[in-house]
Amino acid sequence: MNPVLATPSFLSHLKSLYPRRNLPTSNPWYIIASVAFCASNRAEEVPRVFQYALTDLKAESDNSEEHKLLARKMRDALFKAGLTAGYPRTINSLVALHEVMSEELRDTKPMR
Description:
The protein is mostly helical.
């Protein structure tokens, strides 16, 4: 069994490395972390990054559109990471993310 890498202290430190911007979802730390865990075949860490980022976002804003935007950005980043990391790793990460994502944050129809 692999040790947990995405601890709250690690994620908090990673977030502090990036400057704070107007919108909480404009800070790219969670995208970088989730793509890095995806590329290193640690799909079980991706939901931890998402849950930490979502909890952090909920503390700042109760806007459900912001929460959906966070979920979309993470899914999109993981999907695009498949080009460099390989789609088997990406699929594993997206499945792990899907399992912890609440129903209201899932997209039910195509965006385009």
